[in-house]
Specification:
The chain is mainly alpha-helical and 96 residues long. It is built from four helices and no strands.
C-alpha cells in the first residue's frame, strides 16, 4: 500500500511548513544519534585494551570503560532530548 503525495502535502498544509521542517530535522537528528550510538557500541566492544583479560582490574581498563560509557550515556540523553522535541513539535503542529 502506498500513500499518495497529496496526503503528505495536505498534512503539511494542516500543521504548517515550519512544523514539518522542525519535525523532519528532529527526526533526522534522532536517527543520526541512534546510528552513531550503535556504531559507538561496536567501537567500544572492539577496543583492544578492553578485550585484554589481563587488564580487567587496572585503572587504564576502568578509565577507558568509563570513557565509552559516558559517551554512550550522552548519546542516549541526546536521543531522549530529540524524542521530547519531536513530541513537542508534533503537538504544536496539531494546535496550529
Amino acid at each position: 500500500m502506498q500513500v499518495k503525495w497529496s496526503v503528505f502535502t495536505e498534512y503539511g498544509k494542516g500543521v504548517g511548513t515550519l512544523t514539518c521542517v522542525v519535525v523532519l530535522i528532529v527526526f533526522s537528528l534522532y536517527h543520526s544519534a541512534s546510528v552513531f550510538s550503535n556504531y559507538w557500541l561496536t567501537f567500544w566492544t572492539e577496543d583492544p585494551l578492553l578485550l585484554d583479560v589481563d587488564q580487567r582490574n587496572t585503572t587504564a581498563y576502568y578509565d577507558k570503560n568509563m570513557y565509552y560509557l559516558t559517551i554512550y550515556g550522552v548519546l542516549g540523553a541526546i536521543q531522549g532530548l530529540y524524542d521530547c522535541c519531536s513530541v513537542l513539535s508534533n503537538n504544536v503542529g496539531r494546535q496550529s
